[in-house]
Amino acid sequence: MGPMAATTPPSPAFEPDHPPTGPGAPDVHHLEQQRRANRDAVIALGLNPYGNRTDGLVTLAEARAKHSDAADKAAADAGKAPPAGFVDPRAEVQVAGRVVLLRDNGKLLWLQVRDHTDTLQVAVSQKDVDETSFKFAKCLDLGDVVIARGRVMKTKTGEVTVWASGPGALGPAAKCLVPPPEKHAGLHDVELRYRQRYVDMWAEPETVKVFKARSLMVSTMRRLLDARGYIEVETPMLQILAGGAAARPFTTHMNALGIPLYLRIAPELYLKRLMVGGLPRVYEINRNFRNEGLDKQHNPEFTMLEAYHAFGDVETVMDLTEHLIRESARALAGTGASLTLPFGDLVIDYGSPFRRVAYGELFSAALGIDMLDRARVKQEADARHIKSAGVDHWVLVNHLFEDFAEKTVDPARPTFITDYPAAISPLTRPKPGNPDLADRADLFIGGMEIAPHYTELNDPDVQAAKFREQLATGDAEKNAEESTFRTFDADFIHALKVGMPPAGGMGLGIDRLVMLLTNQRTIRDVVLFPLMRPV
User: How many distinct structural domains can be found in the chain?
Assistant: First the structure.
């Protein structure tokens, strides 16, 4: 292998940064003081403890992959006195990583360094590196980021190792002044993991795997949607009206215009405007904001994929969602791997066709009555101590459904619940031949609602009437059915008057799907920086 790419020399202008001293100065932990002393020692060696540009780096996983048993054997056969013209066949690499384990055996130091791909051993022997590199190794602390150059080989214990060698074989990239968390306390402190994700990521390799899987899943969905002719767009996050869903918005104020604004709760109405404008298939992977509760499935800001298919219907987007989820599972599991993946105590099969069952069928099976029978529904609600006086029939139906029928869905089998009541689906086209039902389906996996699907309502007069009907409902109904729409968007009605083609629409919860596919039981484990109460 030829000479490695040059590393920019340290800046001579770098000076030690000592914490303030004297009355009123903040206390510095004694372990941090020791780390600062080690940093000063690095500076005394003429090195910049915060590194410089370095070209030619490979990841630790790539370095490990370059190891060859045959090359090790050839080098061993050559011995300490290799024949003239012998070229060491072992790959030479330059790597960077954070020190997570450090053993000092006097004239030989063993480092375990970690990057986003792997953890790898680096050996620093006094006889194989220059004096500055060896003295620098003696100044290291756990958490420091270093750059090492050497050949890849296996030690006698069979561990793949980068054996540092030559001038400048080991150098600094970033000094860690903060002691690492306690192995049995800090790393398992949930609050610490969420508040200091940057520590969690280097201390726990599994955390990085989850977020790399999330990135792969999103990029897979983009690729699949683009291949089907969908156009990715961006719609406003700051909106004059909070529309597209029934949720309590976050509010703010725009000084320039002197008007209140709302953070987006859903991009739906803007995406539909784009279909009016002539884009037949659109999607957005968007951040939504809802000023509501926090629990294992809810974060106030979350990520959704919303997609709309002009001249399609609910079946069109159900097929799309099933395809996206199955191929995302395949991307994460690997080609040829089983698509039966764990989620807690469940084993979920993403490879088989998803189940499709009607809302009314589940309701009857769970409660023993027909959801159209108003008297029996009221009796059932009263028997189960659900307030029914003055409450709309369909709100009672949905209350009973969510409390009892929905829980009968097998969480281990992805299931589309179809044919929801039209009264609780104001943005959905009624089912042909049955105006009491809507062309709507919701996907449930692992006991969670993952994605709603609709044949979109595109008649402006019917849509306007439904908006007004929902705005006129009582507080009891508002609290009972979160799917109802609470904002009258006159411009959206005008857009429908211009003419929106019939369409299918869907919204897929990215965070919950990542939870399912990576076997994480709380949304905070799949959001890089979840909202936390200030300390």
Answer: 2
